[in-house]
Amino acid sequence: MRDLLDIRKDIDRIDRKIVHLFEERMHCSEEVAEYKKGTGKPIYDREREQQKIEALTGEVGPEFLKKGTEELFLQLMSIGRRYQYSLLSEEDSYVRKMFKEVDKLEINRDTKVVYQGIPGAYQEQAMIQFFGENISHFTADEFKDVVVAVDEGKADYGILPIENTSAGTVSGIYDLLLNHDVCVVGEETVECNHALVGIRGTDLSKVTKVYSHPQGLMQCKQFLDETGWDQVRIRNTAVAAKKVADDNDPTKVAISSERAAKLYGLEVLKRNVNYEGNNCTRFVVMSKKKQYRGDAGKVSISFSLPHETGSLYNILAHFMFNDVSMTNIESRPLPNRQWEYGFYIDVAGNLNEPGIRNALTGIRAEVKDFKILGNF
Question: What is the pTM of this model?
Fold first, then answer.
């Protein structure tokens, strides 16, 4: 058996060779980038890479080394592509053609904003926090109606909840953003302190039903599980409060904001019934215009990938290579496309930053259904 020090010396010698060979390989990648720039050929050639992997792994014996060789060269080829994208990123005008940088969003007395629900809804509160009290606005029955109103030009901006600190992502919102021609241009966070509300004189021991939005019920699960009441889903917390007021039935209560209770003449029976003290909901502001502010600090994108080993890792590596920090990732299976998944990712940065553009250039070339949802 050889001495450990001698073995390590050999490993160091081999590693130095690998570094020099890697550098030589990257010089070849530069030449490939120049060639493809002149001919217009795409950087990513999936078929060529698969053929190369099959040829290289065929030269290795043990199964463990086959897998290791495959992983090694997949990463080498991925690094090579990212290097080429960075060299050619200035030639990619996708962002420049699709989006316009502005100093500030256009908001004036003619601006119209749409939100889902009725006065007293948390969406209304988010709208007021973002646009101010005096903004012209109207309401819609469903989340989809908000997006459609913006897409069809009936509203300049729309506002929708997208994430809650205790209940997670609001179901279906990402799909609405993906399937309509709208752009996220802003966000607002609202502290949601849910209250249990009912008509004046309500006796909690005689209550049988509680109404709220599904997210409101979920955020108050610990409290509600102890009551045994029937939980009835309503499209909005303020709508739930209004229904209890209209029914004027002391056996029915709602979970809503205290503001909604005041608007509809209800009594606050119990405050802060949400089980998480810091219960906040993040709302996104949408526009038909593809624009972003120069001081925007978050980019949101979507794309789809097949369910293959390393596919997501290789895409996320574009962020690492360009020193871009990922702040959120969501995934879902795609309907009617077996073993393919849609991803929604938020990263810190602005579309005018070279690192962001480099990363998005590479990702766009290697995925399906790529879309920049917005920079805000």
Answer: 0.82
